[in-house]
């Protein structure tokens, strides 16, 4: 897509006029891909990450964010052959959108629909802290002890569940209204919690998503979110005020030894280790398991928004399940390039990886293909590892998923992946301007590790 002046891109988002946008840029409040912006700067809105005061501003053309009041009887899916009506029937057919989270068919209230994969992930997953508020009509008259049980936690068949808060709103002869604030959204969770405390739900209405409310919307109505509302959701998910980082970013193509070097550096520095490539492989597992066409970016992103991705103790977790072995199958290896090339998918994974850094106090050794340029552009230490093609092929041939494959075939596959990675629109594989390039072709692992440690200011003893 042609580049445009940054102030024009900001103005088109609806957040501010061009004049105000210029004032913000001059005041140093705007960054592009982690770097302070300048007046007159041109950006590609398709791929640029623009932030104002540390909060992302969605600028990609075609992004839409709808707030919908889902009525009772409408299913919270994009498509369901068994449902009479699905929630996407309530909004324009184009561009294609998907619901963020769920409201069961018997419940009603506010629901977000969007094609913004990053925001969908931030709003959906409990780790980002975006609450949902419900007003619930229940049988009986729950007292203070019942409300305390709801916030202390009740045991459900899929594990304990607790409300952030629960307060009595009104009482009737045989029923009561209770306002409940939740930090997660498991299937029919609120209903099951009230069943567990002896007060079955007769009506459930979601009234707020974070601080987002709209009392004027009626069942079946929708409206677009304002730019301020979208930014408020990003801010609520904790994107502002990220802590200072102690991080080593290691980028490079396949077969250069990134994982081996990164793990060793992390061990030497006493820092947590993150393999971002495992996220894209886990995403591929999720897409393949769901029978999604990996070439269909919106469909893949919609599926991924329903899952939780985490990397802990060297293991890749998908919805809490260790998929470290599953991500290395030939089927995943063949499809991961297609999955990781989608803009929406990369937004979801980048958000998850940045949150990993927040969870670990801004400390870590992180390896991948876009760490120094996109995921952690402010990393104080950036390294780009490279090697001659034949050396990379020989190393990759030792990997378990490539064993028994002809060396020339391995080299050709690496070249194919390089082309995809370096030409994709979102997060292309490239050397960060402030990265140190290390050719590992004729170096042992210990030598490469020693050079990275020296760059980090902690040479080996």
What does this structure look like?
By secondary structure, the protein is an alpha+beta fold. The protein has 15 helices and 24 strands. Strands 7, 8, 9, 10, 13, 14, 15 and 16 form an 8-stranded mixed β-sheet that branches. Strands 18-22-17-23-24 form a 5-stranded parallel β-sheet, sandwiched between helices. A hairpin with a 2-residue loop joins strand 20 and strand 21. It is globular and about 80 Å long. The termini are far apart.
Estimate the global geometry from the Cα principal axes: globular
Mean pLDDT: 87
Helix content: 25-40%
Whole-number radius of gyration?
24 Å
- Ranges with pLDDT <50 over ≥5 residues? 239-245
Largest sheet: 8 strands, mixed
Q: Notable features of this structure?
A:
24 strands, eight-stranded mixed beta sheet, alpha+beta, five-stranded parallel beta sheet, 15 helices, single chain
């Amino acid at each position: 897509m042609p580049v445009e002046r940054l102030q024009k891109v900001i103005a088109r988002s609806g957040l501010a006029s061009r004049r105000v946008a210029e004032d913000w840029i001059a005041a140093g409040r705007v960054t592009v891909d982690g770097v302070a912006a300048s007046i007159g700067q041109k950006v590609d809105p398709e791929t640029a990450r623009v932030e104002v005061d540390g909060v992302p501003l969605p600028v990609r053309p075609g992004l839409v964010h709808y707030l919908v009041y889902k009525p009772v009887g409408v299913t919270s899916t994009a498509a369901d052959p068994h449902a009479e009506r699905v929630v996407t029937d309530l909004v324009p057919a184009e561009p294609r959108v998907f619901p963020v989270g769920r409201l069961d068919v018997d419940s009603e209230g506010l629901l977000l629909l969007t094609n913004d994969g990053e925001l969908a992930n931030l709003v959906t997953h409990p780790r980002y802290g975006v609450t949902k508020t419900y007003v619930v009509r229940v049988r009986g008259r729950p007292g203070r002890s019942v409300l305390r049980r709801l916030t202390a936690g009740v045991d459900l068949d899929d594990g304990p569940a607790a409300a952030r808060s629960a307060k009595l709103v009104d009482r009737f002869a045989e029923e009561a209204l209770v306002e409940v604030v939740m930090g997660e959204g498991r299937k029919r969770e609120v209903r099951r919690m009230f069943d567990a405390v002896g007060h079955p739900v007769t009506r459930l209405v979601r009234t707020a998503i974070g601080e987002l409310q709209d009392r004027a919307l009626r069942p079946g109505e929708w409206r677009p979110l304002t730019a301020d509302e979208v930014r408020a959701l990003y801010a609520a998910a904790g994107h502002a005020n990220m802590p200072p980082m102690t991080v080593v970013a290691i980028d490079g193509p396949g077969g250069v030894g990134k994982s081996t070097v990164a793990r060793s550096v992390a061990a030497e520095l006493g820092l947590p280790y993150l393999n971002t490539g495992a996220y894209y492989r886990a995403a591929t597992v999720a897409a393949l398991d769901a029978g999604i066409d990996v070439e269909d970016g919106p469909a893949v992103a919609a599926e991924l928004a329903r899952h939780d991705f985490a990397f802990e103790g060297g293991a890749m977790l998908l919805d809490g399940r260790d998929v470290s072995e599953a991500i290395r199958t030939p089927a995943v290896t063949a499809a991961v390039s297609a999955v990781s090339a989608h803009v929406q998918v990369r937004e979801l994974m980048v958000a998850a990886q940045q949150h990993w850094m927040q969870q670990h106090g801004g400390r870590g050794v992180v390896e991948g293909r876009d760490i120094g340029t996109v995921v952690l552009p402010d990393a104080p230490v950036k390294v780009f590892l490279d090697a001659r093609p034949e050396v990379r092929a020989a190393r990759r041939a030792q990997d378990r998923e490539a064993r028994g494959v002809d060396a020339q075939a391995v080299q050709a596959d690496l070249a194919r992946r390089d082309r995809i990675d370096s030409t994709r629109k979102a997060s292309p594989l490239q050397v960060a301007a402030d990265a140190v390039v290390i050719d590992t072709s004729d170096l042992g692992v210990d030598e490469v590790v020693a050079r990275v440690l020296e760059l980090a200011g902690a040479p080996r003893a």
